[in-house]
Amino acid sequence: MRNRLKIFSGSAHPELAKAICEYLDLPLGKMDVQRFQNDNTFVKIRENVRLCDCFIVQPSCPPVNDGLVELFIIMDALMRASAKSITVVMPYFAYSRSDKKDQPRISITAKLVADLLQTAGANRVITMDLHAEQIQGFFAIPVDQLLAEPVLCRYFQEMGLEDIVAVAPDAGSAKRTRYFAKRLNVPLAILDKRRRGNDDSSEILHLIGEVRGHNAIIFDDEISTGGSMMGVVKALLENGAKKIYGAVTHGILCGNAIDRFRDSPIEELVITDTVPLPPSRRIPKIRVLSVAHLFGEAIKRIHDGTSISALFEH
Ligand code: R5P
Fold first, then answer.
1. Residue 198: pLDDT above 80?
2. What dotted CATH number matches 2-147+292-311?
3. From its phi and psi, is residue 72 left (phi > 0), alpha (psi between -120 and 50) or beta?
4. What is the pTM of this model?
């Protein structure tokens, strides 16, 4: 029945789509995506998808809004071509930090994106490490949230680092970091981070736990500007930590984040390939681990109708 399983890639991350196809031993679905001079996007599916389970790989990384609109148009084309089901494979879900109305007169954009995906025809979403797990509830369709935890932890286990403390950069990430600490069998420390206004800056107020004399691994769901991570590194060094590593699922690394890491006392930043990091932006300090096999396995099991819960067990 593999001829009824089709993988398509938007423009956001063709390398990941290719790696997923290699895992599944399937060719990438044939599709044209082009922009007219008036900036309108045109999509044409170039193979039969009737009665097929179609999966579209499109993390919502910068340029976020362009990628989302392109995804909606691909979904619409598949729906009108009589696909049996449409699954959005969105390893990184942008706007996930906009998940609540915690100020007057702001939008809950993650909910809006969830609504738009469903309106465009999504029957299911596969993602990884949402900023807030509750975002699954913004959808009235199944959302499978995979975890980068086994891939990131295995890397540090194989490194053989000793005297580790797992560091949560803010209270919101404490629960998630506790899972890493448990898997690595190491103690946990939590930082109390406060954001200043609506720009990208933040400050560290308190440290809970012992980091002195330990090698610290900071676990976070995403790095955007790197500002939070730099604040955490500074606080850890002031409190006597030895070597410092970062383990982050989504390496957005926008603005001057790469330069910040190059110049920082951090030993290594380990990220995954949920979003692309072009060769021109790679530096020796940043290690990229692939999670394509996890997405490939999830797609295979969804298509076969077998359980995927093993892929999101801590
Ligand atoms: C926020 O709460 C997230 O978990 C990350 O800490 C945040 O997105 C990182 O952003 P930046 O790198 O811009 O500080």
1. no
2. 3.40.50.2020
3. alpha
4. 0.95
